[in-house]
Please model this.
Amino acid sequence: MKIRFLLLGTSLSLIPQTINAQCVATQDCATLGYTETSCSGGSGVKCPFGNWWACLKSDSEIKDQLCTELGFTLTCTDTYQTGGGSKDCNGKYNYCSCADGYLWKDGTCKSSEPDYSACTIGALFYSDNTCSDKLESSKTLLGVVIYEKSGSQMGWIMTVKPIQTAIAWGDIKDIPEITNCTSISCLTDIQSSCINTDAITAYGNSSTYPAAWTAKSYKPTGTPNGKNWCLPSGGLLNNITNSANLTKINTGISIAGGTKLGDANSNEYISIEWIWSSSDYDSHDAWHLEVSTPSYSSISSSMKTYNKGSTLYSFSVRPVLAF
Model:
């Protein structure tokens, strides 16, 4: 009897521990992270408590996630994108190749042609190919717009100050490559500034043709590689005889802190400036723009050897640059 009592006591002492182990609350499949039977390709792990599954990612999905975390997110199939421009990561890229005439910028392919929509007459033109009606000290100013770009026609800017005054056009001779123009009606050479300047400088040196050489030698900071400043054509200067254009240009020059057209030779009685063009009138004369402030301007011709600055006139060089 004593032995049986001891065994019974031992077995009873184990009962509470057994009950605690069996009464732990079981979690349902959803709590455990299993999903319903919607796994792609049937790959998954079944929950032991019913018809629930944990879907497993495919190798491609795992690669996609890793590539995305590394920044490879682009398929490069949008407009003007011609495929991946960077290392391939499971068919994704971190930048794209672009069609001719387009560059990768700000996450897409954009036209490599600068946006000149703000480059209207009188706007200030900067070396980064942007224009503004304000002086932006953080940028390099090149000049003021005097002719707007339109289609294949180049736009033109002019310096906000004359780079030289009291300067002669040059020798009294015909430049063979420049056609004489003896009437304002034939001043249609708006786009010929640099063609004319090159013809003049090829015909003689800086002593015989100082105006053209002074313009072509001008190389301020920010001048685009491969481009030269030029002596403006007569047709381009004739465009400034429009009083509205003259007002806009002088407004821009004032904002830039330059010398307004017509103010290169001013005193208490008069402000006037004669700006040389690169266009021949004949062997004796060349065309120039005459401006007297505040709003008078005209195109006319003068002897090529005139160079004096006085109370009556001052022949100056204001180079132009195409954009």
Remarks:
- Residues 116 and 150 are 10 Å apart (CA to CA).
- DSSP finds six helices and 17 strands in the chain.
- Residues 70-111 form one domain.
